[in-house]
Amino acid sequence: MLGPQTPEETHHQAGAEQNGSRPRRFTLPPLHRSLSARLLLLTIGFVMLAEVLIFAPSVANFRLNYLEERLAAGHLAVLSLEATSDHMIDEDLTYELLSHVPAESVMLYRPQRTPSLTLAMEDIPEPEAVYDLRDAGFFTLIGDALMTLARSEDRRIELWGVSPKDNDSVVRMVMQEGPLCEEMWAFAWRILGLSLLISVITAALVYITLLCVLVRPMRRITENMISFREDPEDESRIMRPSSRQDEVGLTERQLRDLQRALRASLHRKTRLAAIGVAATKINHDLRNILSTAQLSSDRLAESEDPQVRRTFPTLMQTLDRAVGLCTHILNFAREGPVHLEISHFDLRDLLDEVGEALKPDEEVDRSWHVRLPEKLELHGDRQQLYRVFMNLAQNAYQAGATSVQVDGGLEDGQLQLEVTDNGPGLAPRARERLFQPFAASARSGGSGLGLAIAREILRAHGGEILLTRSDARGTSFRVTLPLSQSQGHAST
């Protein structure tokens, strides 16, 4: 009633019952394997990745601002030369001005004014690198910034750039790169710390949100499913949905409806199973009684009473139908689920064999026509499929048809067959419960099992049978088998 279990589950449950303990209840997975923890780590990782992607432009912009500030400071320092008549100052003042920049030399070029102004220390060695901010592009600035961070030793650099104080002035400076590198590393550590803080805060908020919005509701749903599986007929174990209108709320309501439908179905099947067991026992005893009546009635054939001899055939036919009905019911109860013995065979040969078995007496006008491709190989249980088509044909003939025709082939990746007869059609009441066992029969004394067995066999093959038409012109059934169960090709 609860669905199949694996051998491990069965063994575990049996061992728990033998030890007098309850089966193991649902528990949350450990923290390192939980969905929340995984999302926490992923959020931290994604935020850090985003910070790495913006780190390079950020550090390049920091370096550019640092150098532009030095250009502006150098511009202001070198303007002090204009306060003198000869554009010269003493050595001590020069060193003091350059120390505030800081730089070793500053030169100001103004196209509209000459000469250029220069502040410089004595005996300055040649610079080891030259950077021109006037022509530096986005990627050039990023590359230069990363190269500066990668250097461990200090070096002397020459810097060219437009003065932030005057767009018509160009400043040339010679300076040490060490202070710049130290400032850039301090900025990088600040970015790293801020990134970690943002990542942890964001991940924690996501973790708490996920725990409240998704994990706890999913745990509640899972615990309810496990509880319902243990006793699906207990109404108190049915899901009680929350008032949420999102996907979780929809899942809870759908689960509640599913559990209610399953509980109702199990209740009906339990009662039917109990009735079936009783009916099987009754049928077994009734068949024995009817068999005894058959043996006893054989003596009536020897009676000299004309009335008795005249009614004897009717009595025997009635007893035969009753015994046959009891036998069908007992066989249906004993068979259980359909067991398939898969093999490869030709469908045309199978249907021809059905037609041979259905050959009536010569005085009866009946026909069996098969219109299929010449080569249509099936992968299924030949004997069970033989029963399907035999049941369909026998039902048609016994309902009054004189002709049965089978048409079809491969269509839309499936084997589609139409089994059509020219009988009087089915009554509306019979069509409503056509495939239910014992619910419908096309003839008096029938068991109503033929179509139920046919559907069970076809569904075991992954196929289906449907009633497509039933009126005064006849009845038509569509038999479908998946392509995985049938391989063939049409040839004319």
From TrEMBL:
CDD domains, per the entry: HATPase
Entry keyword Nucleotide-binding: yes
SUPFAM superfamilies per UniProt: ATPase domain of HSP90 chaperone/DNA topoisomerase II/histidine kinase, Homodimeric domain of signal transducing histidine kinase
EC number: 2.7.13.3
Domain Histidine kinase: 281-485
Catalyzed reactions: ATP + protein L-histidine = ADP + protein N-phospho-L-histidine
InterPro entries named among the record's database cross-references: 2C_sensor_his_kinase, HATPase_C_sf, HATPase_dom, His_kinase_dom, HisK_dim/P_sf, Sig_transdc_His_kin-like_C
Segments passing through the bilayer: 39-60, 187-215
Xref: PROSITE patterns: HIS_KIN
Record keywords, A-Z: ATP-binding, Kinase, Membrane, Nucleotide-binding, Transferase, Transmembrane, Transmembrane helix
GO MF, one annotated term: kinase activity
PANTHER family in the cross-refs: SENSOR PROTEIN CREC, SENSOR PROTEIN RSTB
Protein name (record): histidine kinase
Classification lineage: Bacteria, Pseudomonadati, Pseudomonadota, Alphaproteobacteria, Rhodospirillales
